[in-house]
Amino acid sequence: MKTVTLAGQTVPAIGIGTWHMGDDPQTRASEIATIQAGLASGARVIDTAEMYGSGRAESLVGEALQGVDRQQVFLISKVLPENASRDRMQRSVEASLQRLGTDYLDLYLYHWRGNVPLAETVSELQRLQDQGLVKAWGVSNFDVADLDELWALPQGPNAQANEDLYHLGSRGLDYAVLPWQRQHQLPLIAYSPVAQGDAWGQHLTTNPVVRQLAEKYQVSIYQILLAWVIRHDQVLAIPQTSSVAHMRQNLAAGDLTLSAADLTALDGQYPAPTHKLPLDVI
């Protein structure tokens, strides 16, 4: 099982994403069962946010974690830009903690940049860490210029992760962001690592090379896509699923290593960028 060091903890390179979960009462029981099955199968990281369902995803995670050893879970949540200020962030994190049924977060991310000065947001994130409400903090949807600005702040290099959109059909990070993060030893959390099942028309699941590799290794197409995302060291993928079977398949992708020839074949279908691209955000 491939691992990532995140905020000083070693965790499996496949985690549990929760975007779009908690919205439908009819699927709540299956979503809770899926999260619990993921933890039972070795997952440790759960990624959520106050934005997801206006707190409903956090409440769902809190219910799923009842009776689970908190020390065995690496819990990530995120603060909205409008709440990332000196006046509002503490209220936000306390509300998230209440919904999650815990007294601390392992990692608290600034969800995306807004109008609050970055220095103020970073200062407040650091204050929450010093207070013990969060063990570590980081950022999300940051491009290279944002990361440079962050690192120029006195407390900026205390950031422990950046979470960006990254999958085989969206490779803009390969040009500048991933090299920057490797140089600065900042882990990447890859959201939507299987492109939400071809939601944006990249046709990843019907691509003949992807399908051939799935047949070669006798795994699912999504396992190939996840193995590609975590081919780099210090990249954590957080796919979302409401299916216990898919959850177990996702986690098994952490044991799959694609060969150099496999990666070359995928590059031929989805080439790495040769120039800087705008940061993909959904």
Q: What's the CATH class, please?
A: Alpha Beta
The rounded Rg comes to 18 Å
> Which ranges are low-confidence, i.e. pLDDT below 50, for 5 or more consecutive residues?
none
Give the helices and strands as they follow along the chain.
EEEHEHEHEHEHEHEHHHEHH
What does this 3D model show about the protein?
This is NADP-dependent oxidoreductase domain-containing protein. Residues 13-267 form the NADP-dependent oxidoreductase domain. It comes from Levilactobacillus zymae. Pfam families: Aldo_ket_red (PF00248). InterPro entries: AKR (IPR020471), NAD(P)_OxRdtase_dom_sf (IPR036812), NADP_OxRdtase_dom (IPR023210). With 282 residues, the protein is of the alpha/beta class. The protein has a single domain, classed as NADP-dependent oxidoreductase domain (TIM Barrel, Alpha-Beta Barrel), CATH 3.20.20.100. The chain is built from 11 helices and 10 strands. The chain has helices at residues 28-40, 56-64, 89-100, 118-131, 144-151, 177-183, 195-198, 208-217, 221-229, 244-252, 260-269; strands at 3-6, 9-12, 16-17, 45-47, 74-79, 107-110, 137-140, 162-165, 188-191, 235-237. The strands form 2 sheets. An 8-stranded parallel sheet has the order 3-4-5-6-7-8-9-10. Strand 4, helix 2 and strand 5 (74-79) form a beta-alpha-beta unit. Helix 1 (28-40) crosses helix 2 (56-64) and helix 1 packs parallel to helix 10.
